[in-house]
Write a structure and sequence with these properties.
The chain is α+β, with helices and mostly antiparallel strands. Helix content is about 30%, strand content about 35%. The chain has seven helices and ten strands. The chain has a six-stranded mixed beta sheet with strand order 2-1-3-4-5-6. A four-stranded antiparallel beta sheet has the order 8-9-7-10, with helices on both faces. The chain starts with a helix and ends in a 5-residue tail after the last strand. The N terminus is likely disordered.
Length: about 220
């Protein structure tokens, strides 16, 4: 049986629980990165044990901290409510029925400054690990444990191959690629986990591909 140091001592973090604090902060931070636009309000729908213990375990403050861009080891995490108020960002928590096989789940909805809404669902798996399971209604699996590209595209022939060609040209190795769509010829998401950090130049090249609607990169690389 392989056991890592993380399994024994847990992640570097602020707070009492890797699942309810570190994982919550990473989940919200990743969700905010995926949403990718300024927001003036964020709501947290809490499922499973998150809904029952979120105050005692600092889950609420960790979620707000992550949404503000803080990491799980940021000493300011405990002051996230006050920091959000200083930035004029509203936040709220409510119990939610989230269909998931995981215990600690959240639906994070960002109310963007342009008037639109954007939601991300995910779970904290323990040890500071997370899994993003839904982006605006499209099912996905994003661990945020390696550099990840999220391409929103029109579901037409050639987009995935054009994206893959750009990565190959820049010597970026694809570890995992998954595509999901709302329907044939409709909107689709291509989620690509890579072995290397994605440079800004590559991100700009991907945005120029025909029928690509948006590109979000989560440049996280764990040891």
């Amino acid at each position: 049986m392989n056991i890592s140091l993380l399994d024994v001592v847990g992640p570097v973090m602020i707070g009492p629980s890797s699942s309810h604090t570190a994982g919550a902060a990473k989940l919200a931070k990743t969700a905010a990165t995926i949403a990718g636009k300024p927001f003036n309000k964020v709501s947290f729908g809490l499922g499973g044990s998150f809904a029952h213990t979120y105050k005692g375990h600092f889950t609420d403050r960790a979620l707000v901290a992550g949404a503000l861009g803080m990491s799980e080891d940021d000493e300011e995490l405990v002051n996230s409510f006050e920091i959000a108020q200083q930035r004029n960002i509203e936040f709220e928590f409510y119990p939610a029925e989230i269909v998931s096989e995981y215990e600690n789940t959240a639906k994070i909805t960002f109310y963007l400054e342009d008037g639109s809404e954007y939601f991300v669902e995910g779970a904290s798996l323990g040890g500071g690990r997370i899994l993003i399971t839904n982006i605006n209604g499209l099912a996905c699996e994003i661990t945020a444990s390696s550099p990840t590209i999220i391409v929103k595209q029109q579901d037409v022939k050639g987009v995935v191959s054009d994206v893959s060609a750009i990565l190959a040209y820049d010597n970026i190795n694809i570890a995992v690629m998954k595509v999901s769509r709302t329907g044939r010829g409709d909107t689709a998401y291509c989620v690509i986990e890579c072995d290397q950090i994605i440079p800004d130049s590559v991100i700009e090249d991907l945005k120029q591909v025909n029928n690509v609607l948006s590109v979000v990169v989560v440049n996280i690389q764990e040891d």
